[in-house]
Records
---
Amino acid sequence: MSDGRNRKDIKEGLEVEIVLKKDQRTGKLTKGTVKDILTNSSFHPHGIKVRLTDGQVGRVQSIINS
């Protein structure tokens, strides 16, 4: 299971767990499917930022299925 910090590991349609901006203090994870990849760099230490199919935006903490 990848931790979501490398852009190459994340593709549209993957099921992932993200942490929303409002949940960064608590670390609460939100599960969803990647619609768009918002981070341009190949690596980000806090996770690649994505938009889910339901419109929520957050940083990938783990990839559920690849």
Note: The radius of gyration is 10 Å.
---
Amino acid sequence: MISRRSLFAAGGGALLLSACETPVTLDGRFPIMDVLGTQSDLSSFRAALRRAGLDELLNGPGPHTVFAPTNLAWSAAPEAFRNADPAALRNLIAAGRLRTPDIAARGNRVRMLSGIDIRVVGGTPNEPRIQAARPGAAPSGASGSIIRPNILCSNGVIHVVGAVLVPA
């Protein structure tokens, strides 16, 4: 008979424990960083958050709303973003759990942790087009569509965006 002790001693402990892990799902039970880890097209953004030390914030209680650029969008991002500057990455994180209807209820405007605003400037209800704006100014700079909205997490919401939003 194999005891637990002999199983662990033989190296089977990791196998036994891995069988007990719950896979991360997109049903609102897991924190933002875990959910970002399930999305292969967001890996560059997730890696930058970790390098910037913002992973602790996004694994915490929150809630937060994250506008996560795809890897393709990330490749065209300004250097401060690609170099994981925490101040730049705060342009993509807002306090609160804001789904697209919540954003609409706020006059299509979200204040980010950096102090800039993200505003809905067009698109469709299913793929709103958003653009960054400095406080008190009109939207400027690149715009992008929310291509996968309202990914629920235990500590917030992720919106996948086809651009890195920076006011001009």
Note: The CA atoms of residues 10 and 140 lie 61 Å apart.
